[in-house]
Amino acid sequence: MLGRTLREVSVALKQGQITPTELCRKCLSLIQKTKFLNAYITVSEEVALKQAEESEKRYKQGQSLGILDGIPVAVKDNFSTSGIQTTCASNMLKGYIPPFNATVVQKLLDQGALLMGKTNLDEFAMGSGSTDGAFGPVKNPWSYSKQYQEQRRPQSNRKREGTDWLIAGGSSGGSAAAVSAFTCFAALGSDTGGSTRNPAAHCGLVGFKPSYGLVSRHGLIPLVNSMDVPGILTRCVDDTAIVLGVLAGHDPKDSTTVQDPVKPFTVPSLSDVSKLCIGIPKEYLVPELSSEVRSLWSKAADLFESAGAKVIEVSLPHTSYSIVCYHVLCTAEVASNMARFDGLEYGHRCDVNMSTEAMYAATRREGFNDVVRGRILSGNFFLLKENYENYFIKAQKVRRLIANDFVNVFNSGVDILLTPTTLSEAVPFLEFIKEDNRTRSAQDDIFTQAVNMAGLPAVSMPAALSTQGLPIGLQFIGHAFCDQKLLTVAKWFEKQVQFPVLQLQGLMDDCSSVFENETLPSVSVKQ
Amino acid sequence: MAAPMLRRVGLGRLWGFAWVDGGSGHRRGSPNGSTSSRRREQSSVAQQPLHTAQKPRKGGHKWAAVVGLEIHAQISSNSKLFSGSQVSFMAPPNSLVSFFDASLPGTLPVLNRRCVEAAVMTGLALNCHINKKSLFDRKHYFYSDLPAGYQITQQRLPIAANGSLTYGVFMGNKQSRMATKTVRIRQIQLEQDSGKSLHDDLRSQTLIDLNRAGVGLLEVVLEPDLCCGEEAAAVIKELQLILQALGTSQANMAEGQLRVDANISVHHPGEPLGVRTEVKNLNSIRFLAKAIDHEIQRQINELESGGEILNETRSFDCKLGCTVPMRDKEGKQDYRFMPEPNLPPLVLYDSASLPAGTESQQVINIDQIRDALPELPSATRERLVRRYGMLPEHSFTLLNEVGLLQFFQNVMKETRAEPKKVTSWVLNTLLGYLKHHNLAVSESPVTSSALAELLDLLDSKAISSAAAKQVFEELWKGEAKSAAQVVSEKQLELMQDREALEQLCQSTMEGHPQVVTDMKSGNPRAINKLIGLVRKATLNRADPAEIKDILERLSS
User: Fold this and answer.
1) In this complex, do A253 and B108 lie within 8 Å of one another by their Cβ atoms?
2) B544 within 8 A of B535, measured Cβ to Cβ
3) Mind listing the pLDDT tens digit for each residue in B281-319?
4) Do B481 and B454 belong to one domain?
5) Per the domain annotation, does A421 fall within a domain?
């Protein structure tokens, strides 16, 4: 049952094959068994069971709230949840219990979804591995998959020490691991520079970043306000569309959401792609790109072409400036957004009481990790009067050029851009931490952050397994506010590639019962 | 009745300060640009020399002061600038704080339409250009009553700019002469107020009240076109009246709804501007004028004794009556301004640019606001002068006292008395009593109806002026008696009985034969004495002219 998609399990609930409480308990039990993944910071067992109980009543009375009623979901721990600790994986907010729900959380709850818990991340979503949080790193469920274990090169020492696991990607690694390991059917991530798409690629999931302004940010603890969007992680495109349909639309509490009414999201099955024009941005072919991802990218392009779509090479000429520009804008907003964490109103407060200033300094030193402090420092540097013009203003201008690159390409008749999501498949944790967070972020956000600067919708689709048996994702980028069209194309791709389901049997003995009776196709990209 | 005494705007000082060492006849040059210098020339106020003790240096150096003001006016609105919390002055601490006001992470600002309308109204009333597109910025600094670590303001592109404010100042010592001047307005911006910190030094702790945090402010920045405390006081008084007339701010300085900072420097005319200081904590118009004049004097003294002026923030100590440097915490502050990413540009429309089919609730139409502007104080004063033949300075006084104009107009509605008489009674008698008892107009024990009735009695010659004063005094006691009741109880009606009056005159003459003799021999004082005696006998109820008439007839 847990291996099913959201849509499938929803049907099962409706038909009474399983009750919300049973489903909830199964998920809770799996969360316990997969605790070592460190996907959740807080498991909201009581809340979930109570919600399940209420959902069950509604089903019994034939008054279900809709497709999400009784569906277990998880939420990244940087979305405010009323009455449930919201930490951003930071000591600064350990124990902070918001008095209100983020709009997206409220919308899920209003539809009867069950909140299983709050998922792990890099501290304040600053990172690309989910390794830099106050609650420890997230482990990629694929580390324990049959597919990976069979294919990977033997590294017996590490295996024995239990340190040979892979990173989940980030910063929404906890959400990705939670969905990937079947502990819930959908999860909210956040995406500022790729934080939803990156872990989706590493964990073999659909990771969707909506157009900026389509989904409310109210209650999402910000990283970069002008780029943040709530992201959606699911195991298939239809599930993403269901969740997006619930979340999208104007929120009076977020002035940057669009006023236009949003139509319900239905994603038709596309049978004909011959009218599509797929753009392949040549600047995304970087030397650091692994040969495997590169060839998969090329195969995917061929797939569209052979189905009749027009596939053309396009240019986004300012791409190479993008990551530096992102760094300046991101750190500047971080410096500003983090100013509120001073220990006065909420969150951590140090014991120093010599003066208010001394209290601020010690509180912030104790509360933030090195990554956050480093970004605050550089952001404040960029915002200094003497530097503002040279860094911040310049970066804003470059941002405009980058956004215009996309506009120009789309105006030339391109419907969708196809790019890699990441340079390679997930790397082992020990490999990953050889580089510092800043270097890693700069490398890992390379294909994803430009989309955030332009406010476009994008989705990372699992495409195939690497020779090591690990998922590789490809990214589709759409026109602003053409999220539905983007998902329609993604759904066509999904159908063609038949990405394999994660196989955890045998390796997680306790879990075997969970996956019984599931069919597990294992097909790679159709040629 | 004598011309009414006019109360001065600034109360305190009777001198201006621009030209301090007696060179008042000189033509004024100004380094501030020709506009302001021309304006200042319009009023060559004769200034009293203030430091005759100081020897002018060689070449007869004169000092000129340059004063600029920054005003923060709390917008009168039900809720705060970016949150739904209520705005109220005397609420219990931290009872009006939304999640946004407390800067809980994840909360976002939502702009209050009423505050935008208030800013547009104020901008229009101050002859500003209204920017159809304005932007919000974050201004960063750490302070315990600034929960987010930044204030949302409009640094780059404010909602209104390039305006002007016309105000009146008294000329020199002649208190009845007024000059009209103009100060330029650089810009008006919308911004958030901070909370309040209460420092408890004894327990070395700071208590924070966030009720005020996030309340909408209008920051009005004036060009440095002023030259003394009195001008600054007159500008602030006029601005206060405008804001109150618009209803955009209650503008009560004592309650902190209007806060003024002054930038002050002195220099020799023709030379570059001097180093300026900023004086804060000016919480009344009187202290504002005092603080500015003190600071100008201090700077002059400092420079003349060879010292230098530091670019610093000073605060006015109202007990000591002087400005003192404020403890500078961080030295030079860099506010690290940044665009506020959570608020889209604020776009306003006029009737020409209004997109078709938009609901009026969704957009703000500048023309619509302009059409609905109420009468501004300057127009009200002109109307008073035109309609009632009032002196301009009387119109100022009527407007400057809260509620006095309304009182005057209420009396006018109910009485047949001449406007001049009413003006005189309201400005002299009523205002005099109010001042003497330190009462506001709204607290007056004499209602407008009672005064109107009294003035009717006076107008119909039912009582004498002297009796009217007595009646007023009775009414002031607030015993809920009407003027007519007082008149009848105290028998203050003018004697209408000519025969009785003649008898009284007759008996008075008989009782004072010597005075009658004097009168007959042509001593002019004698008849006045007799009139006085008769009036006394009538308990002030007789018309002196009539008494005189009778006395003359009887003695002829």
Assistant:
1) yes
2) yes
3) 788 999 999 999 999 999 999 999 999 999 888 988 878
4) yes
5) no
